[in-house]
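Appendix B, example 12.
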Amino acid sequence: MSEELKDAGRVLPSAMVWATFFNGLLGLTMIITLCFCIGDIDGVLNSLTGIPIMQVLYNSIGSFTTTVIMTTVLIILSMVGTITVIAATSRQMWAFARDKGLPFSSYIEYVRPGMDIPLNAILTTLLVSLLITCLNFGSTVALNAIISLSNAALIFSYMASIGCIRLKRFRNEPLLPRRWSLGKWGAAINDAAMCFLAVGFVMSFFPITPLPAPVDMNWAVVIFGFVICVAAGNYVVSAMWHHVAPVALVKEL
């Protein structure tokens, strides 16, 4: 969405840093509070509600009415968060399709005359999301694998972008012109970020318990490898010949 910001080279990195700081601070506060209020872990996990957080709220408050109200707030927040995620995902999908990096790019990138939103990209995002959700009706293991895969894929995207910058620093190659910089601490921050992300990336493929049965196995590593193979195949067959990197467009302008 940086293409839609004014002075994106300065505003966007600053927003990302402050968002990470405040989200980390609030997240840490939430985790500490939850640890103090969770009580009997087995009782929470085996709650008759089927939703552990509802049991935690009830144990802390002791009121059915207040628990229902607070749970409703959580549901509303989840719905609002889902809307923002769909908006961001569809916008990224549209941008990637515009650069001819996806299968069926001509359909996904099409914006109907008179509309200011990438409707085809939004519908495609919704369709894929609904199909993934439907996996829960057939196999909880498959859905859990997809959820674990999303975490691993997100971390991998961070590692890829930071790794490219770190590689240029290692080679003493000049970085692209920018309005916002980490200064002399850039290399150290890149290294710390890569180490932290590497641990999270490996751990995202671990099962919940050692020596798991097939039903308890974390199959995200298999799906991740499959997705990498499909993406590589798409690149060799199509994207390598048609994809136009955004940096090429920037240099052209």
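The first helix runs from residue 8 to 37. The chain is about 70% helix and 0% strand.
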